[in-house]
Amino acid sequence: MQSFLKTVITLLVLLSTQIFAAPDFLPPEKAFRVEATWLENSNQAEIEFMPAKGYYLYQESLQFESGTEAGKLYKIRPKLPLGVEKFDETFQKKLQVYKQAFLVLLDTKPVVGKPIHIEVSLQGCAEAGICYPPMTLKFLLAAPGVRAAPIPEALDGVQSSINEPTEFSLTDLWRERDDVNAISRFLQNTSTAYLFLAFFVLGLALAFTPCVLPMLPILSSVIFGTQGGKAVSKGRASILALAYVLGMALVYALAGVLMAALGGSVQRALQSPVALAAFALLLLALSGSLFGLYDLRLPQSWHQHIDRLAGRQKGGSLVGAFALGGISTLVASPCITAPLAGVLAFIAQTGSMSLGAGLLFVMALGMGLPLLFIAIEARILIPSTGIWMVYLQRTLGVLLVATAAWIASPLIQKNEAAGSAKIINGQSIRQVGNLSFVVIHSPADLDVQLSKAKQEQKLVLLDFYADWCISCKEMEVNTFANSEVSKELQQFVLLQADVTANSPENQALLKRFGLFGPPGILIFNQNSEEQKEQRVIGYMPPQRFIERLKNALKN
């Protein structure tokens, strides 16, 4: 047993070293240097953009605001220089980008004796394949002739108030585990060693969420299966369960790094009809062995080698358990949670692939630990022989068939998606309990709705949803259906971005807000500006969600 564990750990270290070896991406403030100058004897400010070699900025992402009071800035639409034309895979169109340094002149309205406040919004990518989330830089120009760098804590996504604590205790983190902004601050201001402990605790918090629970019957089917017509021994079952959890953790970390580097294209591939159908068929094949129809075995030569590594313990496939843990993590739990979103944004902003992957690995171990204990404890308590084992295997077979049907359900729902929303007055409306959401699918659809809400001076709530997203449905059943939540939401214009199809337009909508996938809820004020501190990623219970809504209404 000990020799096997040492071998597994050694292989994991070697594999992780090779896989996590990635280019050292620059942090955003170094990848996209920006400086602002208040030109002497002029009402203009000069903004100089200096992308590092191998990095570029999107022209259409550039937005500018200025004013003499930080809270009362007005938008400026300056003339932008020509960039280089580049075909963007996400937007599926040609876009203007800047790969070299360039200048932009802003016409300001200075007041004698007062400084100029400037905010610059931008988004860029590295040629090596990583795109950074949108960020906003703030500048304070005290007088003519002053040249200034951005205010340090003004990076978008990690904005913090002066009065907010720079360090979180584990108690604070547990309380704020569904707040992506709090987790982002925690990542920025916490030592590396403490981060690993904290994310293991976050994994424990996620263990019993709908994103993880579908993996319990899959793990149970592994340790309660048969080999050669005999039940797997209890000792062997423990090793198989450990292999399953290690596979789950390693693949979770790898998928997280890929998602941070490539965006929603990874999630789109994992939720493709081919991937869903293949995994559903795999679960059906596994259920067949539980019904006693056949035994699933690797080739005999493989088994002999694996059994030698495991101390010649017979029964069950370590490689199969390891692989099944990894695959089920990808396909059976496609939810984006607040901790996951925080780490993905952290990887995208800092380029720290190895640290981000390590945090995701540790978090997945925390997620798998309760599953491991439940499965092993059940295996110890239930006899290995007798009618109990037969009944249990048949029950697990039924659960696996149900899980396979649930995995494949989006394939059926795609054909019924048109009927899930009704066309009322020319708009697609989806009814969620007592609430009516206007369904949108693209940035253009969103701009139309935001413009309309701005004219009516109404707040907007935008819900990112997909048919295959478990937490999205949990949010609807538990939170949106709550009477108090429903009452508060009556004061908002309700929009729902349906990204089930993961089309290029869906991906453009996600990329616009730096989201890696659903679920996500964004709130916009009366000026159609997002209140980023109220952003919700993943499931949030009714009472905490009501607090968010009330804070949004106050602001």
Written overview of the protein:
α5 (192-206) crosses α13 and α6 runs antiparallel to α14 (387-420). This protein starts with a helix and ends with a helix. A seven-stranded mixed sheet has the order 15-16-17-19-18-20-21, with helices on both faces. The protein has a four-stranded antiparallel sheet with strand order 8-2-1-12. Strands 6-7-3-10 form a four-stranded antiparallel sheet, with no helix packed on it. Helix content is 48%, strand content 19%. It is built from 19 helices and 21 strands. The longest helix is centred in the last third of the chain and has 34 residues, at 387-420. It is an alpha+beta fold and 555 residues long. Mean pLDDT is 74; it is low at 4-9, 11-23, 154-166, 302-315 and 414-419. The chain has helices spanning 2-19, 28-31, 170-175, 180-189, 192-206, 215-223, 234-262, 265-270, 273-290, 300-309, 318-332, 338-350, 353-381, 387-420, 443-455, 470-480, 483-489, 504-512, 542-554, and strands at 32-38, 44-51, 55-58, 63-67, 74-76, 84-88, 93-98, 102-107, 116-122, 124-126, 135-141, 147-148, 226-227, 230-231, 422-424, 427-432, 435-440, 459-465, 492-498, 520-524, 536-537. The radius of gyration is 26 Å and the shape is globular. A hairpin with a 2-residue loop joins β13 (226-227) and β14.
